[in-house]
Design a protein that fits this description.
- By secondary structure, the protein is α+β, with helices and mostly antiparallel strands.
- The chain has two domains: 12-253, Hsp33 domain (3-Layer(bab) Sandwich); 259-301, no CATH class.
- 28% of the residues lie in helices and 31% in strands.
- It has ten helices and 14 strands.
Length: 306
């Protein structure tokens, strides 16, 4: 058993591998970061839970990027669902997200709407942007199953052909606030070139063994802020010959809006277009959907277009 590093109890991600079983995985638990993102919006509990799930999933998938300038984006939408848009992204350990929804229709669904109730016939887009190479990988899968984790499993099976297990849990507590956590376990694709893929083989006991152990994890264990992620890994896989754990990654809130960026964006428009955007005071108000802040930019502060 490899010696464990000690991650923070919350807002931390821990990567690991089980070499003998050809498995890799990640554990994440969000607390203060989640509260910081959600505090910018007065979401009802069902939408708060949905956004929390999206931020957990974005963390699990985004941490797969080896390029610090790369970005993982999740976008779920439908034309007729109660939730019209759900967005979350990850970049260099920073996460952000928001949702757009019909409050009146949501109230009709009761306290515990399902994913189907919220989206109807919706789809989840998962996009990996590699800044170093300029490459972009995107997959689109239907929003089916009990939660976003099921859609992610379908994405890996369909687009990557990698057997995967994704377990996401959210605890909404009046005293502790909202805690979101998740486990991602996958069979390593390395070494499969030139031979039959795992998913088409009739027997793959290594993966079946790990999947059985991973499925014993409960929502309560995942979201228990007093239970270190390292202890959680030990509970699940302590009988394995070797469990390698990587240095923990600290997660932060990652809204990237600022006045300089907004001025630069508005500077791309011509004088007539800027004038149409401005109010009677000569100010353009730009609303950031991620942090619910409104940035006011006077026309006089924008660069002249020659």
């Amino acid at each position: 058993m490899t010696a464990f590093p000690t991650p923070r109890p919350l807002d931390s991600l821990l990567g690991f591998t089980i070499p003998e079983r050809h498995v890799r995985g990640r554990l994440v638990r969000l607390g203060a970061v989640l509260e910081d993102v959600l505090s910018a919006h007065a979401y009802p509990p069902a939408i708060e839970k949905l956004v929390a799930e999206a931020l957990v999933l974005a963390s699990l998938l985004g941490a797969m990027l080896k390029d610090d300038e790369g970005q993982l984006t999740l976008q779920a939408q439908t034309e007729q669902g109660v939730v019209s848009l759900l967005v979350a992204d990850y970049k260099a350990g920073a996460v952000r997200g928001y949702a757009q929804f019909d409050a009146d229709r949501l109230a009709e669904l009761g306290d515990s709407p399902t994913l189907c109730d919220l989206f109807g016939k919706g789809y989840l887009g998962i996009t990996f942007d590699q800044a170093a190479t300029g490459e972009r990988y995107q997959g689109i899968v239907p929003l089916e199953g009990e939660g976003l984790g099921a859609a992610a499993e379908h994405y890996f099976a369909q687009s990557e052909q990698i057997p995967s297990l994704v377990h996401i849990a959210v605890r909404q507590d009046a005293e502790q606030g909202c805690i979101g956590a998740g486990l991602l376990v996958q069979h390593l694709p390395d070494g499969e070139v030139g031979r039959e893929r795992l998913h088409v083989r009739q027997d793959h006991p290594d993966w079946e063994h790990i999947a059985i152990l991973a499925r014993t994890l409960t929502d309560g264990e995942l979201t228990d802020a007093a239970l270190p992620l390292t202890d959680l890994l030990w509970r699940l896989f302590h009988e394995e010959q070797e469990l390698r754990v990587f240095n923990p990654l600290t997660l932060t809130k990652g809204c990237r809006c600022d006045l300089d960026h907004i001025r630069s964006m508005l500077g791309r428009f011509g004088p007539d277009e800027r004038g149409e955007m401005a109010d009677e005071r000569g100010i353009i108000a730009v609303d950031c959907a991620f942090c619910s802040r409104i940035f006011e930019v006077p026309l006089g502060e924008l660069p002249r277009v020659h």
